[in-house]
Amino acid sequence: MSTAQENLPQQPAAVLAEISEAIGLQEGAAGVRAVVWAFHQVGAASTREVSRRTGLPVPIAAAIGNELRRRGLLGRERPSRLTEAGTALLGERGAPPKVEVACAACAGTEITIPAKLREAVSRLADIAAEGPGADLALDQSHCTPETKVRRVLALLRAGVLPGNSLLLVGDDDLISLAVGVVGEVLGVRLTERLAVADISPEILEFISERATSLGVPVEVAEHDLREPLPVRLRHSFDAAMTDPPYTAEGAKLFLSRVIEGLRPGPAHNVFLSFGAKAPTEMLDVQRAITDLGLVTHGLIRNFNEYEGSGILGGTGFLQHLLTTDATAPLFFEGYQGPLYTRDKRGRQRQYICVSCEALIPVGAGARWNAVAELQQAGCPNCGKGPFRPGRLVEPAASGSEDAGADRDARQHD
Amino acid sequence: MSTAQENLPQQPAAVLAEISEAIGLQEGAAGVRAVVWAFHQVGAASTREVSRRTGLPVPIAAAIGNELRRRGLLGRERPSRLTEAGTALLGERGAPPKVEVACAACAGTEITIPAKLREAVSRLADIAAEGPGADLALDQSHCTPETKVRRVLALLRAGVLPGNSLLLVGDDDLISLAVGVVGEVLGVRLTERLAVADISPEILEFISERATSLGVPVEVAEHDLREPLPVRLRHSFDAAMTDPPYTAEGAKLFLSRVIEGLRPGPAHNVFLSFGAKAPTEMLDVQRAITDLGLVTHGLIRNFNEYEGSGILGGTGFLQHLLTTDATAPLFFEGYQGPLYTRDKRGRQRQYICVSCEALIPVGAGARWNAVAELQQAGCPNCGKGPFRPGRLVEPAASGSEDAGADRDARQHD
Questions:
Q1: Residue B412, min C-alpha distance to chain A (Å)
Q2: Which of A82, A263, A336, B402 is surrounded by the most beta carbons within 10 Å?
Q3: Which residues span the domain enclosing B368?
Q4: What is the rounded CA–CA span in Å between residue A93 and residue B187?
Q5: CATH number of the domain encompassing residue B159
Q6: Where is the N(4)-bis(aminopropyl)spermidine synthase C-terminal domain (chains A, B) (predicted)?
Q7: pLDDT at A277
């Protein structure tokens, strides 16, 4: 059977494992299979949709798509469909059934925006367009106006609003203004006290100005969250919301500041927005959460949608946490360690310009720290783009061992 | 202002705190406020609906309702509405707006049952009616047929099905048969290998019989999960599902067995069903999860609905976990410690018979270990029921310090 067998198709398991190895995927063959399954469910799927469905970051989903295409398992048209050989990866007996199980009404986010709040969405889109841009060096990218409203609705659903006090630890997403706009549209003041601590004077100035014209007082504190909260914000709030840098250190630090701001005691609500990472990296984040004495009360994948198209656009989850009797901050003093993605990035990844096929390194020591910066600048060779992720390049001399740092292309504050 | 003030209504904050203290509520005034908010949102709400919305166990929601009624803040009609004084607890400016934010299509469970699977629900209802009853001593109560189908859909959504191997660690909920029925209705075999480990020969016999008539092979292993898995089930499965006893020890033990059964490596899917507990108790459960090297990929509240009406009926969450590089079981040897709720229960609670007002103690050292048993037996005084939760009684001589054990009235396997 030796020569004849060479012409037979490879076993699905072997193909999936091979692709997983080619891109060093932590999820292994199961992760590749999940991508194939997502393409099968959708029919013709964009990389972004595959990312949503699998929970894999957009650049990883794109890399898997490229490997499938190279092997003739996925079509080259965009959005792409599985070829017959690609569908065969899912089983020997032909295509399995398509069953759309995520709720179509809320896209699996548990929350729908009521008709009377569509106005709030469009007003927040206008406000965001006039506000400060995202600071890539601070891992920022902005969530969509729908996401802003959904976050306010999550606070209403939990009973945090109306009527309680709310602290926003970092607010480049302008959630304070979303609380104001939603309250105005509903005809009720939603918070007893609403405060924002943020490092950026531009963001705080913008929030103060707009909040005043909305008639919703927002207390702003210009503050580097590496330092403990100002005394006037400590031990005072019923609930808090944060969208920290997407590193375990970022989560631990920002949640420590959240806890400093909350009234002592159990059952206070905390909402954490965060981006998908490989399971082993997520373990550090979730250990940080339990180390802080916080418990998970809900976790909604793909709840947060961020601006930007293609590889830059992405989604993140909303984790609903509760304080317990054991809740305490982990950082009391000023924090000096790594915080943003670029502080931790140790490897470069080559990106391929779709227009001219140039290979451009991105990461520590390269001209661009993040693909977002490269996208903004355009290709150094032809001036255009967009860019597809290519191979990982050897660790830089600084030698971080953070194997998953390349997942952080669309990280933000 | 001394005498005049005595006739003024109490401040909302003081009332909420007083009620919280009266029942020793770990959630404090915020928990009571959440119950008031839930009544306000629904209009006329059953205790079960309030439990769903607040995440508080049914007996706790019932106790808070009783305290509100005693103070004239909640009506005595069932289902109950807030009185004017009750509504005033939510703010001084009258009733805040009602905003229905949980998705109406999926009730916030992220998953809807497609029309073509309604048949699977009714077939599973018939199967469950013919199957073994719930064993209260093993903390069992059965999930509804809709929940069985939703659990299979959660496996489909994650891409675990179709095509992979699945291990069920405990299966008194007959999820193995749900996999078979859903597959039959869809016209596809959903699993490559499907196995159940359970302590009950009756359940396994029932599963084997029905699986054979469905044409879906289910491998059954009669096994006490205190002991390591049989060798033939170890390191073999792509995914697993479990609904363990609702104690931190139960979660840790059953998840250890899950991990023994999974193929080594990261990104394997594990689905854990569990019941609401107070935040500080949940911290033990979630620490167990991170200690096992598992990460939370999703957590859907109220996903699981259990059979039984009134105080016995309840809901639980579905937690989607992933393995990581650090995943390892915590128990390798046979486990000898406490496991089921009654092993840990140290206090008794008085239940009040609604028919004859008799006070009946329930808990360790009492005639009934759990209110479910009392409900089955009927009131020892008048033979009827139903029962409302009353006061906690002093710790029994055995002296467990488990302050939240009284929350476990509807625990199950």
A1: 20
A2: A82
A3: 347-397
A4: 12
A5: 3.40.50.150
A6: 120-325
A7: 82
| Model pLDDT, residue A93 | 56
Beta-bridge partner residues of A1: none
In a domain, B332, yes or no: no
A342 token code pair: 């670029």
Facing residue for B163 by CB, picked from A91, A163, A286: A91
- Verify that B15 and B79 share a domain, yes or no: yes
Interface check B238 vs A, CB under 8 A: yes
Question: Which residues of chain A from 335 to 394 reach within 8 Å of chain B, CB to CB?
Answer: none
Q: Does the residue A280 lie in any domain?
A: yes
Global ipTM: 0.79
Do A127 and A256 sit in the same domain of this protein?
yes
Q: Tell me how far CA of residue A83 lies from CA of A62, A124, B389, in angstroms.
A: 17, 42, 61
Is residue B248 domain-shared with residue B203, that is, in the same domain? yes
Give the CATH number of the domain where residue A20 resides: 1.10.10.10
A71 and A132, same structural domain?
Answer: no
Query: Does B340 reside within a domain?
Result: no
B105 and A105 within 8 Å at the Cβ level: the answer is yes
Rounded-to-integer distance, Cα A103 and Cα B108, Å: 9
Task: For A190, list phi and psi in degrees, rounded to 5.
Answer: -85, -25
For residues A178 and A274, state if they share a domain. Answer: yes
Domain check: are B76 and B128 in the same one? no
**Contact B163/A290, CB-based, under 8 Å?**
no
Residue of A nearest to B91 (CA): A163
d(C-alpha A93, C-alpha B190), whole Å = 12
**Chain B interface mutation, best of A25, A106, A179, A181, highest count of B Cβ atoms under 10 Å:** A106
Chain A residues within 8 A of B297 when measuring between CB atoms: 55, 279, 282, 299, 301
Is the domain of B81 the same as that of B119?
no
Residue whose C-alpha is closest to residue A242's, from A318, A190, A182? A318
pLDDT tens for each residue of B298-334: 999 999 998 864 444 578 999 999 999 889 888 767 7
Instruction: Give the distance from CA A363 to its chain's centroid.
Output: 19
Q: Are the beta carbons of A279 and B267 separated by less than 8 Å?
A: yes
Let me know if residue B53 belongs to a domain.
Answer: yes
E strands, A160-313, where?
Answer: 164-169, 191-198, 219-222, 239-242, 269-275, 294-306
Are B13 and B146 members of one domain? no
* A33, A280, A325 member nearest B326 (Cβ): A280
Residues of A in contact with B162 (CB under 8 A): 90-91, 96-97
Q: What residue in A sits closest to B190 (Cα-Cα)?
A: A96
Distance from CA of B215 to the nearest CA of A (A): 17
- Quickly state the pLDDT bin for B8 (edges 50, 70, 90): very low
Residue B283 to residue A298, Cβ atoms within 8 A: no
Among B46, B74, B90, identify where a domain stops.
B90
